[in-house]
């Protein structure tokens, strides 16, 4: 996250918010996360989120400004949760598993994440700067480190970029909708290509 | 090329055009191709093309409708020339070379192509349908066939998609502009990843 991060800079996550406000914010994000998991992000309105959280619609708008604002905060929180999991969490994602196992788990985990948040990620992906800039740097560093630890040889940057293309939001949605793939088969593809690059 | 191909359906390439018209069209496309190679597509105006071809500006507009129309016709013609080269041309691109050599040559050739036409390819790439649809199918089939002939094992569709991501217009321009890469170093990366997937 660098100086131009629009999510972090939103006023909604100020550390000084009062207890009620912080509680409402957590309630609303939990409700939104649950609804997104059940129906997909496209099908959710601010009314739905307010009703599911048991608060007034005005509270949702005061907290997040707009539907887009809510989805950005949700994406950012989930991104942080995922980063915690693959950097410090339990195996197979976290550091106590062998590097190839971590790489395989990372791909399957990220496919679920990308599918959940594809609407926002797809919009962000249309800006080359955000697509290849700071937002993706943590993942690229992680995948490159795992390829290196798994003793892959050759151009690791190129291998990292080629692998990460299989987790790109527009690509994943196209494969799911137009090509009859599932998160399971896309995870199998990730595993096959990752093993190939690591020589197993 | 399928039913919805906007380039093929343009009236400018009608086989019945009169001799003068066909000659002007060829002159203009040659001039445009030369100018794009010299200065890059972004720097070229319809006036430049008319002057370089030695015809009036009105003729350029009658032939191609607009600057975007001219660039689309040029992209389409170059795409056909490139397809001819990798399907039927001399080695190392064409069928008389070993499959891995053809795959390496394809990547380097395509990098030059993508850089030349990045403006239009980038605009087309923002539409997922065109990006993963008919326009890219010929290349995907070709790369998959070469991986198979080079005795790569595993998920060849996934390997093909991962490899082709290294030739994507936005990615290539980002690497050239922001990452200090050159067409040479990007070609080296293509070679390294392709060899890895083919086990050499």
UniProtKB/TrEMBL annotation, chains A, B:
**Which keywords are on file for this protein?**
DNA-binding
Gene3D superfamilies of this UniProt entry? Answer: Tetracycline Repressor, domain 2
Q: Which Pfam families match?
A: TetR_N
Where is the HTH tetR-type domain positioned along the sequence?
Answer: 22-82
Q: Which GO terms describe its molecular function?
A: DNA-binding transcription factor activity; transcription cis-regulatory region binding
Q: Give the PANTHER family listed for this entry.
A: HTH-TYPE TRANSCRIPTIONAL REGULATOR RUTR, POSSIBLE TRANSCRIPTIONAL REGULATORY PROTEIN (PROBABLY TETR-FAMILY)
Q: Which domain of life is it from?
A: Bacteria
Instruction: State the organism named in the record.
Output: Mycobacterium cookii
Return the protein name: TetR family transcriptional regulator
Q: Which InterPro entries match?
A: Homeodomain-like_sf, HTH-type_TetR-like_transc_reg, HTH_TetR
Location of the DNA-binding region in this protein: 45-64
